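agent> Task received from the user: take the single chain below, predict its 3D structure, and emit structure tokens. No templates, no multimer pairing.
agent> Plan: (1) validate residues, (2) run structure prediction, (3) serialize to tokens, (4) report one or two observations.
agent> Step 1 OK, no nonstandard residues flagged.
tool_call: predict_structure(input=
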Amino acid sequence: MPPANTSSTSLPVFCATACVAISVISLAGWAAGIDWLTSLAPGLPRLVPMTATLFLLASLALWSQTRASAPRSVQGVAAAALVAAGAVAILGGHAVQQAPAPFALGVDSYAFTLSSPVTAAMFLALGASLACMQWPRMLRWGQWLALGLLLMALLTMAGYVFRDTFLYALLPGKGTSLPTTLSFILLALGVLALRPAEGMMVAVHGSGPAAWVTRRLLLSALIVPVLLGAATSMALHAKAIDIGTAIAFLVWGMAALFTAVVWVFALVLQRYDAARRQAERERETALAALREADARKDDFMALLAHELRNPLAPIRAAAEFLKLGNCDPAQMRRTSDIIKRQTDYMVHLVEDLLDVSRARRGLIALDKVPVDLVDAVSDAVEQVKLQIARRGHRLDVDLPDRHPSVLGDHKRLVQVVANLLGNAAKYTPEGGHVRLQLRADDQQIAVEVRDDGIGIDAALLPRVFDSFTQGTRTAGRAEGGLGLGLALVKRLAELHGGDVTAHSEGNGQGSTFVLTLPRMQRMPDGQLGGRTAARLPLRS
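)
tool_result: status=success, residues=540
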């Protein structure tokens, strides 16, 4: 058995120390002739030296088990054996109706008389309990013995409360003193607290709901009968009720109170059970999301390998062509254009990966200054003009006459709008229509990108801004991608204090993305200098 830790030994040490104190005070009372130190009140049974000696041995056995570093404590076993042997000697002495010779010292015969048979039986249970605690296989038996001893000691204590009853004559009247009863209660509690996480004590140990409810039910089981018994006794002493009524009142009261207690704790357990079921549902949801994320990660790795391999093929072909030599300048330019276009695409993929990684870790730093959003949108249109023209799309750009301003990073805002336009071009079949409109009011600015492309499936729409999420590739969609653009758009919009939303009527119905940003109030709007404001049609 491992060494007991500090938190689990504080109560046993306290109980053992308190019991030693009671025994020492009692022995001092015998030596000094002070009766109240041995019985607490005149006329009550006294704690005799024999009993005090056995309590000292029992306290030693309990204390040694809190310090045991080996599977079994030799001191604990020896002390527990002496306690049990003393109890057997007392019982044997009472059986033959005479004290053994070692106790007939002729000094003060009452001082060295044997303890009562009830006390001896309790010592026997205590010694057996302490001995059982040394072996893991016997630990539960030791705890049951300690619990029985505790209940017996509490019953003896109740006998002192009801002194004019048969209970007093049966237990305290046999010679079990009040300090003896208190010592047994302390030692029984100490034994039960010795191994709180083992044996039967696991039911009341810990912070779980079952242990919480069990502790309070046990406390109710101890308190309710005592309170009802005290109330009944007071009523009988006052002659307010007869014995038959007192018994009926006691039985009904215990039934009613225990019913209420059990009902209350049943409701508590029901709440705990509901919380547990909710936690299980959340755990299953989290596990499903984790499995989905893992599957998406695998898909992403395959997609990344595919997207990086695609530009490598033309680059390799261009390199082989250049290796042949004897190329005219026109062929050299076309080959160089191929290499540049494919390397630019690879750089774009890598930059998207880095940006998403930075965004997730909160490492994107914005250089926020007043930004003319019309200028930012126009720069984004210029950036994606070739891509849109290559797809044969018609692009309509609707900008206001006045230039609304936002506080943000011009480069990142251009990136956001360019990603929205590029996404629309990518998912719109050739010869489609893409429309960009900028609207502004006193509080916010909205940039709307609408297309008549393949649309967004209803199942995909809630996840469209998640990383690595893409629509199904079709024959008319030549451009690739990693599904990172919209995730980056969402994060950059949030960093600017705005948001972006997606709308679609379903497959084949096109889609609409709306970027909203808070408008900057303190910078006056400028005029659209040098730019065509109303509509900028763009065809291939």
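agent> Step 4: summary for the user.
The beta strands are 369-372, 394-398, 402-403, 405-408, 433-440, 444-451, 499-503, 511-518, 526-527.
agent> Done.
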